């Protein structure tokens, strides 16, 4: 199995040449993503995921009390689903993500930075995948920590990595930074959106180091173009 990777050094060539600082958000931090994204449009990606070849053995809930209505679907080179977006503020404690701002806060993530520390959810756009179980096993599908994800909401496309795992029967969650990048309220208690988010996870891809958003954007743009060409 060939793993497509893009280390930070590779990103420094293609992606960083096009890098541009974005405005500072109300949080006092640069609005993620930290490099410009958008050579592949939301419309072009969504046109390729209008039908679902279901690969999950059953459906997921978007919340504990919701009906199970969300399948994981397969395409050439990717899996995808369309769901809500709950906010994951887990990982490193920061002024925005901690026990006081998030009643469900956990000081760890399933996957860690290159220095061994948990990911930082308020600066790194990442997606949460359901824990491997009887409905679907992300690992068997060629997805793992650092896999690249195109996240589509309204007319926006932003790239993220797989950074955490969640409950085995619930789907639709991403980091504070991922939500903020898409213009979704990132507040872990009151934010998120109830529907309309499409997550396209590219199989056998990996960003190294996982915390390099620039590398995720560079590889994500490449894989998104390939996805459109091959489906």
From TrEMBL:
- For the keyword Signal, the answer is yes
Q: Where is the signal peptide?
A: 1-28
Q: Mention one GO molecular function.
A: chitosanase activity
Alphabetic keyword roster: Carbohydrate metabolism, Glycosidase, Hydrolase, Polysaccharide degradation, Secreted, Signal
Q: Which domain of life is it from?
A: Bacteria
Its Gene Ontology cellular component terms are: extracellular region
Subcellular location per UniProt equals: Secreted
Looking up Pfam families in the UniProt record yields:
Glyco_hydro_75
- Biological process GO terms, please? polysaccharide catabolic process
Q: Which InterPro entries match?
A: Chitosanase_fungal (IPR009939)
Cross-referenced PANTHER family: ENDO-CHITOSANASE
Protein name according to UniProt = Secreted protein
